[in-house]
Amino acid sequence: MSEQEKKAKIKKPVTRRKFVIHSAVSAGLLGVTIAANAAANRFRSTLDHYLGGRPSSIEHVNGSENWDSNYYDAKFRGRVQATEEASKLVTELLAEGAVLLRNENNALPLAEGTEVSLLGRYAADPVYGGAGSGNIDESSCVTLYNGLKNQGLNLNDVAFKWISDNYKNYPKAQIVMDTPAESTYYIGGIPFKDYSSDAQNSISGTVAVVVVGRGGGEGGDLSRDLLGDLHSGVSSKFVQNNETDNYAEGQHQLELTVEEKTLISEAKKRASKVIVLVNASTTLELGPLVDGEFAVDAILHIGSLGATGAEAVGQILTGKVNPSGRTTDIWSADFTADPVFNNFGGKQFTDVKNYYSKNFANTVSDGTAYFVEYKEGVYMGYRYYETADAEAQAGNYDGFDYKKAVVFPFGYGLSYTTFTTKLDDLTASGEKVQATATVTNTGKVAGKEVVELYYSAPYEKGKLEKPAVVLGAFAKTDVINPGESAQVKLEFNIKSMASWDSDKGYYVLDAGEYVFSLRANSHDVLDQKSVTLSAQDYKTDEATQAEYKNHFDDLTQYMKKNCADQLLSRQNFKATFPKLAENRTAAECGLEFKEYNYKDHLDENVAAPITGENNGLQLIDLRGKPMDDEAWEKLLNQVSVDEMTAMLNDGAYNTAAIPSVGKPQTSDPDGPAGFSSLTGTTGNCAYCSEVVMAQTWNTELMYRMGQMVGQEALASGYNGWYAPAMNTHRSPFAGRNFEYYSEDPTLGGKIASAVVSGAASNGCYAYIKHFAMNDQESYRVQHITTWATEQAVREIYLRQFEIPVKEATVDLKYIADEKGTLKTETIKATTGVMSCFNYVGAEWGGGRKSLLTDVLRGEWGFEGMVITDFNLYGHMDRDQSLAAGGDIQLTVAAMVPGFKGTDNPVVISRLREATHHVLYTVANSNAMQGVAPGSKINYGVAPWQFGLWGGSALFAGLGLFAGWRAYKINKQLKEQKALAAKQDSADGSEEAEKPAEADKASEEK
Length: 1005
Description:
The protein is of the alpha/beta class.
């Protein structure tokens, strides 16, 4: 091609800038494609969970096509239908869990058509749930206004509209998870003087229903000092406003504010009656409402409402439902006088520096460590107040006045009718205390009654600490008509009355007189009987026959060394009453904080287990088989190390599929108020708070609640459930109390056992949480070390977990032979546990072997899986968790490092055992619905994968095209450069020729 032709072919010169742009676009598109596919591979289980996983199909073995592998009866066709049915149950739960605290002169119930004025900011802005894992979709909930109106009450629209239009102008508390300095603690009350004159006048002659509300949230506690004591870890800086101008020195979040008192006072002047609804899932200081100038006609505790709880409020106010709830905590008059008050939140070990300061959520750790000391020992909640009263009555506790100290006892609640309860018979022999009682309705309307049986063990000063009164058993009657009676049976283990003796390392039942009393509540005795028992030592666990020994000696010794003069003792309550905790050093406490190194916990003599074999087994083949069946070893031999680590380190709201053994991916949502998600609504039912559930004191109703959760799981494709939450209401200021049941472990444990069993009956495995002693939110991810005597740990803080582990059961259906015979076997229903953020002693609870292995598995016989709480923090070392007996990490693998030493035989063995726990749980769940033994689960392609492939193809195509264009442009640049160089050369030759031609012409001339 001639130069002229090449010039003609290049229509327009190209620039290097155009080449750079095309090259950058090509590199960017190809880079994004590669990065997206790499990220998708790491986030695969998370994408499957939120965007839809790989579709699966079941390849049946010949002859099994007609076997009945529908192990669970799904009663609803889809999520919407199941949610609607569950919402009806929420109404029933709150109707039975609301507690009538006061009802002077039969102020309640109200006649239909009564004109009612809903007052207070929470009348229009009620508490439906809580922040964090208890988050619910409030837009789907029935409002208090509609709940009352739907039951025939006539609502004062003038006052309510004004409140609805203006409450947003008054800031209220907002807990920012794990960031107290950014949280706010305003009550948000509206001063009555701010109400419009029309709204004020409209109240006259109506029944005033004043709503007093307090919220709660994960990651932050309620304020013990509204003026901003940041050192407590539960209060924060605030902007001065009209509300804060009224704060008094030392005022806390759970006492009535000036705005609330003024509103009630004005309502009393104008309205015919004043009824207070307590819209909170924690106790409040309500003494002013029962005596003095602010005393009201009636008080109804309604807790957090959930989806349809407001309907139940209307039903109770109008008498369509007779309230039968009972308190699950003691309501004291002055929270600052409680023995827990001075030792809640946390104090700092001032010499601990740079301890796990590098983590995956850099804003929450300053590299130090904190501590909280349970100096009250076993005298927590009603155990303290009832024992204090007994000591005062005996002349040993001057100045204590029960009537002044307690507003409402534990187990307290009123009814629209009256009952008499008589103890018919009681025996205490062998292993059981057994009693029968007769309840008679002596009133004029039908109702239910709670029967509470307490025990008082013999106490000798200087010996083991013992509360004067402890709940032993309870039951709730069905509806009893006026004039009719019902007989109730109660029983509990004699062993549960024994005390843990840390000097001996086992439970001891002292000889002497035991008083068994039927009570209307923890304080008021209805009937009683005494039985003399012989001394007995319990050296082994009744469930497993494992030998008892101290597993928390380090905690006991710490308390004896550092809190001896303030460890509350019945020998002298006044002298040992806990004082305000102060900062101290770890060195003076004999503690050393050292970060975990997995290499320090390996055994060179352990042989590597077999992995990656092909034994032809599928997970369904192990359904119904015990954990120690030899077939499990063959199945586990098939799983590779990569499969184990991929599943165990990527367990946020799911467990990943393991195709080699036919394990499907499971979906495991949060939370204590029903299936929830921090990323948005799941479309499932929002239940009322767990406090309200426990206030039903009705295990049969709570079993139905668990069943309903299981039905929702079947309808929504869920398998596991991060609930129930069941830590202890140690302090009313704990921000997460709305998630927990009670201050009493027997009540909380029995309620949880019913819920877990109900959920398991429909194949949904529950993770009881947060194991253990996660009884506050302050510093929970900042190395809060929790200290208590082993006696308190075992008798109170572990017992509510122990009960469902041992007592919750389910009838499991499975196919037993090659003929397809369907059999049923009763197994333990509790197969999931979530560990805690906090430390138990100086060791992270989720990585403490004595807790997860020695007690949970060894003593109690737990056979399921343990998952961490959300693991983004350095101290929650996954290798430590694995070594301690933990299994799954609640985290997203792409955001955190993986397990270390996965080529080490010890680590592989731990991974294998953890995988065993997970597979056992999943095999006996609804994840196996429709799968028969011998069948194989085949997996297709996840929907999001098609999108990724399509997007990748498009981006890759565009990237390649841009690269091809860059190549062509670069080629053109080279041609232009060569042509330009040649042109320059030609031009130079022409210039050189001109003088020569001139010289030649001159010569010729």
